[in-house]
UniProtKB/TrEMBL annotation:
Entries under SUPFAM superfamilies matching the protein: Formate/glycerate dehydrogenase catalytic domain-like, NAD(P)-binding Rossmann-fold domains
Keywords assigned: NAD, Oxidoreductase
UniProt-recorded name of the protein: 2-hydroxyacid dehydrogenase
Annotated D-isomer specific 2-hydroxyacid dehydrogenase NAD-binding domain residues: 117-290
UniProt source species: Mycolicibacterium arenosum
Family: Belongs to the D-isomer specific 2-hydroxyacid dehydrogenase family.
InterPro entries, A to Z: D-isomer_2-hydroxyacid_DH, D-isomer_2_OHA_DH_cat_dom, D-isomer_DH_CS1, D-isomer_DH_NAD-bd, NAD(P)-bd_dom_sf
PANTHER family: 2-HYDROXYACID DEHYDROGENASE YGL185C-RELATED, 2-HYDROXYACID DEHYDROGENASE-RELATED
Domain (D-isomer specific 2-hydroxyacid dehydrogenase catalytic) ranges: 46-321
Length: 328
């Protein structure tokens, strides 16, 4: 139970964008939260009547809060994000206004790392394609499924050796993989080899795993040159954000056999996936499910509410990425 008193007339928690149904329900019943209307006219009316009462927003990486919405909410003190990635929220604008931003780190690390390993095994061993082969009745008709590629003992480059990248590396280490990485900065005391550029990393490895945060700093970090360097025997895994990869270049390389395959949980324009990929058996396509287990989503929900409770009670956040009240 979250014992926050509901005082909508003085201060309002605002839900921006769809949220996990149980979280939306708790926000509504226990915090008296309002939901920002999607429709532009309704939204304008809501903001005219109630913008000044909003002190905290709860949103997710799917929606976020842009600079315009922040400017329209004069008493906003915190954007509380369900999810570790907050690239849809304008953190520079938040800092400039002294608006805090929190996310949900750590609690989803294991599930997202599991997803990366699952995608890597699936695309290299072609399990999903082999499953389709069995279901289509092709085994009796065509005999053995074609041979695939060994995943264990392969060499892997991780782009972004943060919490999730580190958890992926740890798992792959147990599979006998040789791990190197590229990161904004070399990670002190890392057991893995640092490579100064994504192209040089891609040239060296069988598999490139994208685990870097999204946002302007990593936009198309994996560009056409990186994909070419990975080459026709290379695989790309992305569990981070579609924005980190030049998606048209990736699709082109896959369609024309200049890349061996890809395992993708994230896309540039979700929920839309380039239709050209549907035709290919050397890609595994997931609908952004990396953190999507009952256990992890419950922990993300609990951490979101802990941030909200802390903010409403003390003006601080439990897991801030931008501290509230500090104008930068
Ligand atoms: C989704 C994720 O954000 O945490 C992240 O950054 O990508 C996922 O966990 C989650 O579905 C909420 O949008």
């Amino acid at each position: 139970m979250h014992a926050h008193p509901v005082t909508p007339s003085e201060s309002t928690v605002l839900q921006v964008g769809p949220l996990k149904p149980s979280l939306a329900e708790t926000l509504r019943t226990e915090y008296g939260a309002a939901v920002l209307p999607e429709d532009a006219t309704d939204r304008a009316r809501f903001l005219t009547d109630g913008a000044a009462r909003v002190t905290a927003v709860v949103t997710s990486g799917r929606t976020g809060v842009d600079a315009d919405l922040m400017a329209a909410l004069p008493n906003l003190g915190a954007v509380i994000n369900f999810g570790v990635g907050y690239d849809t929220t304008d953190v520079d604008a938040a800092s400039a206004h002294g608006i805090g931003v929190s996310n949900t780190p750590d609690v989803l690390t294991d599930c997202v790392a599991d997803t990366a390993v699952g995608l890597m095994i699936d695309v290299m061993r072609r399990f999903s394609a082999a499953d389709r082969f069995v279901r289509a009745g092709r085994w009796p008709a065509e005999g053995n499924f074609p041979l695939t590629r060994q995943m264990s003992n392969s060499s892997v480059g991780v782009i972004g050796l943060g919490r999730i990248g580190g958890a992926i590396a740890k798992r792959l280490n147990a599979f006998g993989c040789t791990i190197s990485y590229h990161n904004r900065r070399e990670v002190a005391d890392s057991p893995y080899r640092y490579v100064g550029s994504p192209v040089d990393l891609a040239r060296d490895v069988d598999v490139l795993v994208v685990a870097a945060a999204g946002g302007s700093g990593t936009r198309q970090l994996v560009d056409a040159d990186v994909i070419e360097a990975l080459g026709p025997r290379g695989y790309l895994i992305n569990i981070a954000r579609g924005s980190v990869v030049d998606e048209p270049a990736l699709v082109d390389a896959l369609v024309h056999g200049r890349l061996a395959g890809a395992g993708l949980d994230v896309f540039a324009d979700e929920p839309y996936v380039p239709a050209a990929l549907f035709e290919l058996d050397n890609v595994v396509l997931l609908p952004h499910v990396g953190s999507g287990t009952v256990e992890t989503r419950a922990e993300m929900e609990a951490l979101t509410l802990r941030n909200l409770d802390e903010f409403l009670a003390t003006g601080r956040l439990v897991t801030p990425v931008v501290e509230p009240g500090v104008r930068v």
